[in-house]
Structure formats: structure tokens, C-alpha cells
Amino acid sequence: QVQLVESGGGLVQAGGSLRLSCAASGRIFSTHRAAWFRQAPGKEREFVAAITPSGSTNYTDSVKGRFAISTDNAKGTVYLQMNSLKPEDTAVYYCAVKLIGRLEYDYWGRGTQVTVSS
Questions:
Q1: The pLDDT of residue 1
Q2: For 54, which DSSP code?
Q3: Mean of the per-residue pLDDT values of the chain
Q4: Where are the alpha helices (DSSP H) in the chain?
Q5: How many Å apart are CA 114 and CA 77, to the nearest integer?
Q6: Are 96 and 108 contacting, i.e. CB atoms less than 8 angstroms apart?
Q7: CA–CA separation, 28 vs 117, rounded Å?
Q8: What is the pLDDT of residues 10-65, one digit of tens each?
Q9: What pLDDT score was predicted for residue 110?
Q10: Burial level of 79, CB count in 10 A (0-12/13-18/19+)?
Q11: What is the reported pLDDT for 39?
């Protein structure tokens, strides 16, 4: 069983930056794909970014060039660096992991709130 705990959310002005962290209960990122999702009020949860054990990344179009996902397997942590934040980035951000080869993300954190003021 993998446990994930997010941190780093908060209130920031538009144009500012935040770095989210997600600590896993073990050094799993050599075998698990990690991702960040977000859910804004009244909206469905959406994919934000993902990273594979080899370091390949992909992003939803709305965050390309502004957000960066990375992992530190020694620390068992995945990060989401968010720059040039916009009010529409306001959401609860969740990290999730899945074993390579699985279709669905198996483990989820409880989320961290990010609020961007205009």
C-alpha cells in the first residue's frame, strides 16, 4: 500500500509561483508513473502533468511552459513547480501514482489547495 501526502499549496497572486510536493511512503518512482491532477470548484478533476520512471514528462496544454513535474526517488517525492500562475489555476491539486503498465492510477493523495488571486 502506497501513501501519498501533498504539501506546498497556498494563496498566491497572479504571476507568482508555488512548488507542490508529494511524499510517498517509499522510493517508488523507479517503478511507478507519477502524476498531478487538479479539481476546481464545480468542475471535474483534470490531468495536469505526469512523469515516467525514465523521466519522460507530459502536460496538459494549459500549463505547458509554466509548470514542471519532477521526482527525487531518493527522497520518494514528486514535485510540481508552478510559475506564472493564473486565477484559472485555482484548484485542489492531487498527486497520484500507478505501477507501470496499469491503466488506472492506483494511489491518490488527499490534495492541497492552490488559490491564485487576480
A1: 86
A2: T
A3: 96
A4: none
A5: 19
A6: yes
A7: 35
A8: 999 999 999 999 999 988 898 999 999 999 999 999 999 999 999 999 999 999 99
A9: 97
A10: buried
A11: 98
**Within 13 Å and on the Cβ side, how many CA atoms surround 23?**
5
Radius of gyration of the chain (CA): 13
SS3 for 84? coil
Cβ atoms within 10 Å, residue 82 = 26
Q: What whole-number distance in Å separates Cα of residue 8 and Cα of residue 114?
A: 9
- For cell 501533498, the residue is 6
pLDDT above 90 for 72: yes
Strands of 1-118 (E only): list them.
4-7, 10-13, 18-24, 32-39, 46-51, 57-59, 67-72, 77-82, 91-99, 107-108, 112-117
